[in-house]
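Service request form, structural biology core

Requester: graduate student, group of Dr. S.
Request type: structure prediction, single chain
Budget code: on file
Notes: please return the result as structure tokens.

Sequence provided:
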Amino acid sequence: MSLLLFQAPAITAEPNNSRQDLPSVKAAVIICKGLIDEGLFKSIQRRTKIALNENAEYLIYEISTYGGLVAAADEISKYFILDVSKKAHTVAYVTTEAISAGAMISVSCQDIIMLENTTIGCSAPILLGQKLEGAEREKTESFIRSTFDRAAKANNYPAALLQAMVSIHKKVYRVKNLQTGEYEFFEDEQMPKDPNQYALEAKELIVSEKELLTLTASDAFEYGVARALVKDRAGALEFLGKRDGVTFVEPIVLRTNWSEEMVRKINHPAVTGVLFMIALLAVYIELNTPGLGLPGLVAVICFAIMIGSKYLVGLANWMEVALFITGIILLMVEIFVLPGFGIAGFLGIMCIFIGLFGMLIKNPPGRLPWPEGPENWDLFLGSVLGLLFGFLGFILSAWLLTKYLPKLQFLSGLTLAPTPAKRGTEMEVNITAPPESEILSVNVGDLGEAASTLRPTGKAKFGDAIVDVVAEAEFLDTGTKIEIIEIRGNRVVVRVAEN
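Core staff response, request fulfilled:
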């Protein structure tokens, strides 16, 4: 594609009519900033639908990003080319940089307009903790090159330059076509041979085989990647108006809302890992204290946030959510209904892990959740790493809680520490008794009876005092004679009394 072909509209396009006679059209500016991920894709879809419902004929996607997930960028690219471009004119307006996946979504728009001193390009794939080499690198780059090639053909960009943004071994020349007077771009192995048609002796090397192409705004404009170079958004609208013979009413500006930004942040592996750690820690505290309370509620909230955020961005489908909830229910049945630990507990754990595993991979409900392609493996491994760090953080936090917090009076009720059982009043447990009662504490060996069904937690009566207790590995009915066998912090463990 020649330089003059791309520059001509910016230099010479003037409408034949006066400005007052030009048709007035609507434009919508859709802000696309930060990491390119599934959350941004969903947000772009939502805001694009709003703009189309408002009868916007020009959709200006304001790009400012260093890239992100290839899978999400490919979905946005297909959405722009195969769907949106049939309903409105798409424009990528680069305001700072469009790097890596940002370049992919930019070239998927019908026009690229760049603010002065901005950049675009450098789209070679990088996987978390992996070094791509040989056939594996070529496989990954081949997919990305095909995405850029699709965009080049759909939107009339110089394909050779776009390919050089992806692969470092591409050598690209600019050659003048003697018959048309325009410049065209060729990879080294595709150079034309006819000296009568092309000025082969005057060919200009644009990209060497040791470079990965990144273009400044001025270079992108010169080489035909950018249609125009402007100073601000108004300049972009002015260029489009002059070229296409239209005038614009004040454009509507559509930004991501707070909930979309929150969902995108929650789905970051680091945040997911922290939520996972807090949820496990809350479960640990809940299981080590009698009754159901605040820690259990915290665990439910953390898991709900994790699952809900992944469902909203399309990572979790209804089947995976159902599996996770089924696993939780089976575990609750095992703990509170069935004695011991058996099939229900094992199936519950399996359902939880399968559901959680599936939420890390985007797949239809009826399809096995397994990463396909290096970019999906990168996303999956990043999420697994976040959960792993969350689990390690839970182990460390649980150890610290057990070791140190019982020594702090104002926090001693939050966790339990192994301590030798003592006779006397040294150990404080959760006990209630009438004011005139002589029972101020309980001790190992005391006999009583279950005041409620112990599943395995509940209440027991020792004399006229009521104590929160935990039965050892079994469920006990109300009225069962019991004996205290262990006191750990404020946790009183009992079993059936021996006759």
